[in-house]
Design goal:
The protein has about 475 residues and is α+β, with helices and mostly antiparallel strands. The protein has 16 helices and 17 strands. The strands form four sheets. Strands 1, 2, 6, 7, 8, 11, 12, 13, 14 and 15 form a ten-stranded mixed beta sheet that branches. Strands 5-4-16 form a three-stranded antiparallel beta sheet, with no helix packed on it. A two-stranded antiparallel sheet has the order 3-17. The termini are far apart.
């Protein structure tokens, strides 16, 4: 019988901050710059005699993240030099924080936070030239926030959920785009397994992760790899090391033995001032100015609108869509109509957007008019879908479209009764089947009435009239 192992995961997540300039110089912070080595200067290139100047906006951004996490904001903080040599570090050290981070503690999605600190990003190494590499220094010196969690995550799913929620939080705060494809958010996974949940196993760090799904797969792979070694009595082969994730092979590979903090020879940067944050920033004011955060918005949507959790996630993940939905909900007022609207948005509108690149959010008033018409029975569900497909491309009144296309439902019992009787007379076999006890035969007659009326008949009224005339 295979042994049961307990998984422990801690995350280190880096996010580039959305500031106009870099962390310690005035160079443009532009993640979309395609030309190499244009956003550089003597400071970020570490020319002799240059001095760094702290980007106040970057410090404020990290404080806002800490306040959103319910963390403790340090009164005293300082920057340190993290010494190591690599081609993408022009100074041969990185300005980071070690002993006195800006943020300590806090929690997100039930995961406790150890710290959040601020540092400068490295340059980008390009290894696609065959037998040599090139370095692009545009990214060197960009403000980089690092968040470290406590080792309290116990599954790949929990790790993925945390990462996605942090990405949302950063976007809601407006401090980072956190786009993983552009490298604006990078995740490192620290993972171990053991037979005793109270004892940590040997920790392995996994890098080169470019998506949350990749992080989940890397965690699952490492658990299987380490479990197999322990089952085979080869536990000594699990060493504290840094491993990379190979997306093509869906596996990790050894990169190097893990360094310890002592290897970096941290010491306070002598060129930068110590910071007493309560003197520089009005922390209470910053807290009061925080926007509504994802979890608070989820709870409000649940309580105010009673819509499905899947719908809520669509609005939380896409904030523009969520803001637009709120405009619709405010105008509809009626809770049942809001639920109907949400169904059309998450199923029909999002479906249209996938297949039609020209689809855009319709004008709120037009969409509200459409939902009122559908919920009050003035148009059929099919008619509503057809009109929606038109107003996501061109801003027009749904009522005007319905009138022009003949989609207004007919509620005139007298006129409909004539059509219903005509269909009954023309289908004696179907009528006989229905009267013989097969209820489904009625829907065949409903379909024919709808066809005869060119879709204008109210289906519920048609069913009512059919039953009355057949019984």
């Amino acid at each position: 019988m295979a042994k049961e192992y307990y998984t422990t995961i801690g995350l280190e997540i880096h996010a580039e901050l959305k500031t106009n300039s870099k962390m310690f110089c005035g160079c443009k912070n532009d993640p979309d710059e395609k030309n190499p080595n244009v956003n550089i200067c003597p400071v970020c290139m570490a020319h002799p005699g240059t001095l760094p100047v702290i980007n106040k906006k970057a410090v404020e951004s990290v404080i806002r993240v800490g306040l959103a996490l319910g963390s403790e904001v340090a009164d005293f903080t300082e920057f340190d030099r993290k010494n190591y040599f690599y081609p993408d570090i022009p100074k041969a050290y990185q300005i980071s924080q070690y002993k006195y981070p800006i943020i300590s503690g806090g929690e997100l999605k039930g995961v406790k936070i150890t710290r959040v600190h601020l540092e400068e990003d490295t340059a980008t190494s390009k290894h696609d030239r065959g037998d040599y590499s090139l370095v692009d220094f545009n990214r060197a010196g960009v403000p980089l926030m690092e968040l470290v969690t406590e080792p309290v995550i116990h599954s790949s799913k929990q790790a993925g959920d945390f990462g996605r929620e942090l990405q949302l939080l950063l976007r809601y705060l407006g401090v980072s785009e956190a786009n993983m494809e552009k490298g604006q958010m990078r995740v490192e996974l620290n993972i171990s397994i053991s037979e005793d949940p109270k004892i940590f196993g040997t920790k392995v760090e996994v890098k080169n992760i470019n998506s949350f799904r990749a992080m989940e797969r890397a965690a699952e792979y490492e658990v299987k790899r380490m479990s197999k070694l322990l089952d085979e009595g080869k536990g000594s082969e699990i060493v504290q090391e840094t491993r990379g994730w190979d997306e093509n092979k869906q596996s990790t590979f050894s990169q190097r033995i893990k360094e310890n903090a002592n290897d970096y020879r941290y010491f306070p940067d002598p060129d930068l001032p110590k910071l007493f944050l309560n003197k520089i920033f009005d922390i209470k004011k910053l807290k009061s100015e925080l926007p509504e955060l994802p979890e608070a918005r989820r709870n409000r949507y649940r309580n105010d609108y009673g819509i499905k959790d899947e719908d809520i996630e669509s609005y939380i993940t896409d904030k523009e869509l969520g803001d637009w939905f709120e405009g619709v909900a405010v105008n509809l007022k009626d809770k049942n109509k809001v639920k109907i609207a949400s169904n059309y948005i998450t199923s029909d509108y999002l479906g249209l957007k996938k297949v039609n690149s020209g689809a855009h959010l319709p004008v709120v008033n037009n969409f509200v008019e459409l939902i009122n018409m559908a919920s009050e029975g003035n148009i059929s569900s099919r008619g509503a879908k057809d009109i929606l497909a038109m107003i996501v491309v061109k801003d027009e009144s749904p009522m005007k479209i319905a009138e022009e296309k003949g989609l207004i439902q007919n509620h005139d019992e007298g006129a409909l009764k004539e059509i219903v009787q005509k269909i009954i007379d023309a289908n004696p076999a179907v009528v006989s089947t229905y009267k013989g006890g097969k209820e489904n035969a009625l829907m065949s007659l409903v379909g024919q009435v709808m066809k005869e009326s060119k879709g204008s008949a109210n289906p519920a009224l048609v069913q009512k009239l059919l039953k009355e005339l057949l019984n």
